[in-house]
Amino acid sequence: MNTLSVPQVISTQDLLKHWQGHRALTRRVIEAFPEKDFFEFSIAGMRTFAKLTDELLAIAAPALKGIVNRQVLPFTEKETENLTTKAQYLERWDRDTKEINDNWEKLSIEDFSESFNLFGQYEFPIIQNIFYFIDNEVHHRGQGYVYLRALGIEPPFFWER
Amino acid sequence: MNTLSVPQVISTQDLLKHWQGHRALTRRVIEAFPEKDFFEFSIAGMRTFAKLTDELLAIAAPALKGIVNRQVLPFTEKETENLTTKAQYLERWDRDTKEINDNWEKLSIEDFSESFNLFGQYEFPIIQNIFYFIDNEVHHRGQGYVYLRALGIEPPFFWER
Q: Where, in this chain's numbering, is a divalent metal cation bound (chains A, B) (predicted)?
């Protein structure tokens, strides 16, 4: 399939690069938290950054796998419930980075406009599902920036990917 | 130009809809702040949500206008420095929503891969500039969610656009 010669708003490879760039920044935010604060600090009764990371990990790689296999699975944070150190979270993060790269290769450009019922709850075109993965991560990471600031820690530069 | 028959990761119209959906949610976040807190509340010495909104307004419509006209202008928050009420911010927000829609029509699909030196500082393909507008808004809005929670206010549902 030759799509390179056709003008695109964004290519599939550039969208993956965009997503993984955000994931690399989120990884830096996890790293920036002191071990204890990653699991314990929060503001106004919100989730800790570890809990927010549970959600991000429960979405990205599993959701993309579901899309690629057209297999509708419920949302679950069960996979990370036994992680107790930042190092374990980062290891899982990196494993998922590879899994995302591998599964991305299985997407064709035609797939992005097809509908998929994400977690059996959100029936949208696949491109919208993927934008949701990215936006939701940016949203929660923005909250992580406030936690870091409140802890007196300089967050990573937003442009750094 | 017939691009509709060609598979796309995302169409130009759907990308606009995605962006404006986020802008509609940010508008709801502005609305959710009590008048005084919009201008005064912050956490850990960060900018108030009014100041963050200054930045968002200084980017979105002016940057897209610059892109469409291929006119490199410096970043400035001067345009909103005289706004003193939430109502004025919302009015400016709505004016910019229309301006964005109008200028978007002037973008061709070929433009998205062309390079543009945003604010004379960030030389990237136009699609990356536009993703930056969206991501930066989601990032700062996520911070606004923490402010609202800290104020005891339920933020709008993330899915609401």
A: 140
